[in-house]
Amino acid sequence: MIDSLEQLAREPVTAEELERAKRQIEARVLFSGQTSRGRAEALGTALVLDGDYRAADARLDRIRKLGPDDIRRVAARFLIGTGRSEVWLVPSGGSTGGSGGGRP
Predict the structure, then answer these.
(1) How far apart are CA 39 and CA 62, in angstroms?
(2) Selecting from 3.30.420.270, 3.30.830.10, 3.40.50.10300, 3.30.70.260, what CATH number does the domain 2-83 have?
């Protein structure tokens, strides 16, 4: 999984992959906006992330404008090196091996 994330930072996604992802997001946003709960969640998310509930209406337009280089640039910033945070969950009673630190 980590290799896949790092690959996003090195190589742009294909236009086909990006368009498929955009269509999936657009469908989810449009369908969720048909219910009061979905609309409330969108407005609340916009308020928390952008500081303005009105940003919810512009979010889909911003997603539609994304290009492969945008994805690569953000992946390079947040998904590799010090920009990335990792959390490893180990079942209770499980062993991480060694002293209990590091990756399972």
Answers:
(1) 18
(2) 3.30.830.10
CB 46 within 8 A of CB 55: yes
Using a 10 angstrom Cβ sphere, with 0-12 exposed, 13-18 middle and 19 or more buried, the burial of residue 72 is: middle
HEC assignment per residue over 8-72: HHHCCCCHHHHHHHHHHHHHHHHHHCCCHHHHHHHHHHHHHHHCCCCHHHHHHHHHHCCCHHHHH
pLDDT tens, residue by residue, 28-85? 999 998 999 999 999 999 999 999 999 998 988 999 999 999 999 998 888 887 777 7
